[in-house]
Amino acid sequence: MYNQYVIQSRNNYSQSILSPTISSEAWPFPLLKEKFINTLSKRESFRLFDVSKRQLTNNQLNSLATHATQCITQFHLQDLLKVCFIDQAKLLSTERAVYIRNQQEWEQKCVLTNSSIEESLYLQLEMHRASGVFYFEWDVNRITEFKRLIDYRYMLAMSGLLGHQLSLKATEMELRSTVFAGLTLIEYLEELQHNREMQRLPLFAFAIQ
């Protein structure tokens, strides 16, 4: 399904059109260097999600979202990349819905059907039992030269980095969580975008107990 984005790829070692966004020589993450290694050593992947043992709170959710958006801003990607959250535990409203983070506020993107949230949004069924799932959404319409494999690889790398950062932040907060591949594309297009025209691309995800 990603053929439209890689068909004109010729040189896998060329510079991505997005790579100049990484220009700072300073430590680029909100986590302090001194805490990074210690937090990394404590991090464990957790996948045994249980609806009856959900633990995420609104304050924790907002702290995680702020951490991710700070990373995105540091890399100057805020016009191309958004943090989204699938609220499976109804933390933000009385409905199971998808939200996009705009500055310090949540904006509802869509309401989910029962069937999608229970069994088909992710290949890994256990992810449907988490409190919620963060994913990272790229606006491919704004990447006018996005026809090369190197750019897609860069987007995968940045999305993976954000997932890893959220995992470290969750470890700091003593939350059980895991990074994983992300949403099934057909469900994303039908349930979240409501059409099959590729306008935005969800890459990578992060689930929390």
Would you kindly provide a written description of the structure presented here, covering whatever features stand out?
It contains six helices and six strands. Residues 4-13 have low confidence and may be disordered. β2 (97-102) and β3 form a beta hairpin. α2 crosses α5 and α3 crosses α5. It starts with a helix and ends with a strand. It has one domain (52-208): NADH Oxidase (3-Layer(aba) Sandwich). It has a six-stranded antiparallel sheet, sandwiched between helices. It has 209 residues and is α+β, with helices and mostly antiparallel strands. It is globular and about 45 Å long.
Tell me the layout of helices and strands.
Layout: H1 3-6, H2 33-42, H3 58-74, E1 81-87, E2 97-102, E3 105-111, H4 114-120, E4 132-139, H5 149-172, E5 177-180, H6 185-193, E6 200-208
Antiparallel strand pairs: 1-2, 1-4, 2-3, 4-6, 5-6
